[in-house]
Amino acid sequence: MFYQTHLTSRLMLGTAQYPSPAVLQDAIAASGAQVITVSLRREGADGGAFRDIIAQCGCRVLPNTAGCHTAREAITTAHMARELFGTTWIKLEVIGHADTLQPDPFALVEAARALCADGFEVFPYTTEDLIVGEKLIEAGCKVLMPWGAPIGSGQGLRNRDALRTMRAHFRDVPLVIDAGLGAPSQAAAAMEMGFDAVLLNTAVAKARDPIAMAAAFGQAVAAGRMAFDAGLMPRRDMAVASTPIFGMAELA
């Protein structure tokens, strides 16, 4: 549940870089995603036509502040998105490093505090840093979106130990793995760790067959969560026979 909104799908899908609007729509349908992210810059470039395409998908729109590098720029973009899409949801991105696209934690917290105070329901794109997470929660965020790896890198869950620690630390906070996932197996792994959802774009949009890849990610996310809920077996240092020796017949 995100900001009192119940969803049946734990996959969130981006809408950039698809080869055509028809492929985008079919990929969203195949994925089963109920939340899609939209960049205000993309909307500005394509006008109302792109908004009409998105509206036909029947999904909840999560506008994002992609491309913003300062708190002021992100805040302004968020206000424009709220007016344009009629939603208080905003995926907050404030980029601090041009090469890795790593979030600027200081500007991120500053922008989150201002937007939460103004009635926005903020989904902050952040790192796996616990202190930054705490500051974002204190600012009013009720969801955290730690990266798996740099945006578009396809590296998957690059720092699993830190992500596990984050999941354990923010036990009651919805956590969404955002960015860096390149394969359905990586999305399944995130769900098996207990994360609440994953958000991805490039791995589907740039696939040879985006529609089939979208379906694969949807199934992987569902399977990973099912495995987490069922209870994964613990790792062991030694082998343990599945058939015990005790009680077996002795043959002369």
Task: Summarize this entry quickly.
Strands 3-2-1-8-7 form a 5-stranded parallel β-sheet. Strands 4-5-6 form a 3-stranded parallel β-sheet. Strand 1, helix 1 (21-31) and strand 2 form a beta-alpha-beta unit. Helix 4 (71-85) packs across helix 5 and helix 8 (184-192) packs parallel to helix 10.
Low-confidence stretches: none
Q: How many beta strands in the DSSP annotation?
A: 8
Number of helices: 10
| Class of secondary structure makeup | alpha/beta
- Residue-averaged pLDDT, rounded? 92
Indicate the radius of gyration in whole angstroms: 20 Å
Q: Which sheet architecture does the biggest sheet show? A: 5 strands, parallel
Task: Describe the structure in your own words.
The structure is a single chain. This protein is α/β, with parallel strands linked by helices. It has ten helices and eight strands. It has helices spanning 21-31, 40-46, 48-55, 71-85, 105-117, 130-139, 160-169, 184-192, 202-205, 210-230, and strands at 11-14, 35-39, 60-64, 89-92, 121-126, 145-146, 176-178, 197-200. The strands form two sheets. A five-stranded parallel sheet has the order 3-2-1-8-7. Strands 4-5-6 form a three-stranded parallel sheet. Strand 5 (121-126), helix 6 and strand 6 form a beta-alpha-beta unit. Helix 1 (21-31) runs parallel beside helix 10 (210-230), helix 2 (40-46) packs across helix 3 (48-55) and helix 4 crosses helix 5. It is globular, with a radius of gyration of 20 Å. It starts with 10 loop residues before the first strand and ends in a 22-residue tail after the last helix.
